[in-house]
Automatic annotation (TrEMBL):
<dbReference type="GO" id="GO:0016301">
    <property type="term" value="F:kinase activity"/>
</dbReference>
<dbReference type="InterPro" id="IPR011611">
    <property type="entry name" value="PfkB_dom"/>
</dbReference>
<keyword id="KW-0418">Kinase</keyword>
<keyword id="KW-0808">Transferase</keyword>
<dbReference type="InterPro" id="IPR052700">
    <property type="entry name" value="Carb_kinase_PfkB-like"/>
</dbReference>
<comment type="similarity">
    <text>Belongs to the carbohydrate kinase PfkB family.</text>
</comment>
<dbReference type="Pfam" id="PF00294">
    <property type="entry name" value="PfkB"/>
</dbReference>
<dbReference type="InterPro" id="IPR029056">
    <property type="entry name" value="Ribokinase-like"/>
</dbReference>
<dbReference type="InterPro" id="IPR002173">
    <property type="entry name" value="Carboh/pur_kinase_PfkB_CS"/>
</dbReference>
<protein>
    <submittedName>
        <fullName>Adenosine kinase</fullName>
    </submittedName>
</protein>
<feature type="domain" description="Carbohydrate kinase PfkB">
    <location>
        <begin position="56"/>
        <end position="318"/>
    </location>
</feature>
Length: 330
């Protein structure tokens, strides 16, 4: 793949997901912290939780931006990924799975410790609680990032979890902007926002093109528990971005300038797992938006891709379900 042929570069942590359905009381008995969201853990804490699982977890390539990149590839974009893999068999499996889908893997960096992994605990209500050991991904240094990593890429999609490392996210944004990329970011988690709100607003002033947020994240960003979501989308758009505010089973709002679009939900009768649904939504939106589709049409496609994801365990839509999905998208 030539550098000039890349529509989208995902930037984030290449994490191998460990997928485990658990009963509600598993969280109170074996997992420190609140239900929902994502909390970083070390290797010992991860091993302690894994030891108490009722069954062995399934595995899937994961990481927020990586999930979005993978699905955007399946939807027809030419893609690459920037992140740091480990020095283990898990890392080799991860790279090989990306390469098999046609994702350019030349911009992966390799560390000297094992690969990142994230345990996704899904309760019967389909809510997910994530505990993540960043491993090699956490060793990615600002000094390893340069505009050359983004050369020839039209758009960079960055996961919000990188904001926990301010020096790294600053280096990523500077390099992407220098290389001429448009930039989107998924706000990722209310924990990310609560810890880094001043930085987020400072960077909105510097310039983003698209911000993705769910209902918890947009309320955390503005510290506002009552304003309707359409108005919060307009408030975010007033910072000069395209604001994509996802509100679960109620659909989404997309705002840009004077535009405001209500995106109808695609209803799902049997929700299995919400893990990765937001990443899939972003993939659907970006796959359409970067091909010149309208905001409303991009949102429609995003809604279908996100809805298909929640029908299956894990963040990756199975191959047998993806072909019918693409047919529905038109």
């Amino acid at each position: 793949m030539s550098a000039s042929a890349i529509d989208l570069i995902g930037v984030g942590s290449p994490i191998m997901d460990l997928l485990a359905p658990v009963p509600e009381d598993f969280l109170t008995q074996h997992v420190a912290g609140d239900k929902g969201g994502m909390v970083l853990v070390n290797d010992a804490e991860m091993s302690g939780i894994l030891a108490h699982l009722p069954t062995a977890p399934a595995t899937s390539t994961g990481g927020s931006a990586a999930n979005a990149t993978l699905n955007a590839t399946r939807l027809g974009l030419r893609t690459t990924f920037l992140g740091k893999l480990g020095n283990c068999d898990v890392a080799a499996t991860y790279r090989n799975r990306f390469a098999a889908l046609g994702i350019d893997t030349s911009r992966f960096k390799t560390g000297t410790v094992p690969n990142a992994r994230s345990l996704i605990l899904t309760t019967p209500d389909a809510d997910r609680t994530m505990r993540t050991d960043l491993g090699a991904a956490m060793t990615l240094s600002p000094d390893e990032i340069s505009p050359a990593d983004f050369a020839g890429c039209r758009h960079a999609h960055i996961e919000g979890y990188l904001v926990f490392n301010e020096a790294l996210i600053n280096a990523v944004l500077a390099a992407a902007r220098t290389a001429g990329c448009t930039v989107s970011m998924d706000l990722a988690s209310f924990e990310v926002i609560n810890a880094t709100r001043p930085w987020i607003f400072s960077q909105l002033a510097e310039g983003f093109d698209i911000i993705f947020a769910n209902e918890d994240e947009i309320r955390a960003l503005f510290e506002d528990t009552t304003t309707p979501y359409d108005q919060l989308a307009r408030r975010l758009a007033s910072h000069g971005v395209t604001a994509a505010v996802k509100v679960g089973k109620d659909g989404a709002w997309i705002a840009r300038g004077d535009e405001l679009h209500r995106i109808e939900p695609v209803l799902v009768d049997n929700v299995v797992d919400t893990n990765g649904a937001g990443d899939s939504w972003a993939a659907g939106f970006l796959s359409a938006h970067l091909r010149g589709k309208s905001l409303a049409e991009s949102g429609r496609i995003a809604s279908h891709v996100g809805a298909e994801t929640v029908k299956h365990l894990g963040p990756i839509i199975p191959d047998e379900a993806f072909a019918p999905l693409k047919a529905r998208l038109g």
